[in-house]
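User: My collaborator sent over this chain with a note saying "see what the structure looks like." That's all I know about it. Can you take a look?
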Amino acid sequence: MMEEQRRAAYQNSRLGQILITKGYISEEQLDAAIHRSESHDQLLGEYLIRRRMISRWQLRRALSTQSQRRLSASLSLALLTPVYRLLAREDAEPIDKALETLLKPLLTSDSANPFEFIPDLSMIDRHNGLIRLRIPSNYGELNFDGLQLTHDGSKNHLELSLADLELGNARLFIRTIHNQLDPLVGR
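Assistant: Without extra context I'll predict from the sequence alone. Here is the result:
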């Protein structure tokens, strides 16, 4: 399950989709650029810059957005997948003690609803080497403060796991948000 969610998060953070969302190119331009860049054996961003469809600044901004989305989705999955089954009241493997301590407010919840979260909607802020991760869920917004990556940054976001996080000084805050994951709310 975790691998499927991680791959879905990567699919939703594809460069072309980000460029469209930011209004830098249209879907038609993206489709044409993908086809032509593949036939010229070029990366999409290189092709778009060479054809002057986007600027280097726009590409850097889109790549930064892509990296942040992928990191936040990967960290969300690394933190929550090991306990997802436990929170959903299903059989689960034992969880790491530091993570169990951190997630105690969720583990003691009396909610009859199974726990749900969408890693694609998570958001991340970095400051002085510490990470604040916000994950919308049906329990409310989970705010993890004080997370720290233990690797040197060379590891691909797709490969991140719980072992890559220092949880000793991390804290979890839950902010209630009405129907955060209900797609019909707000329409």
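A starting point for your reply to your collaborator: The helical segments are 2-11, 15-21, 27-39, 44-50, 56-87, 97-102, 104-107.
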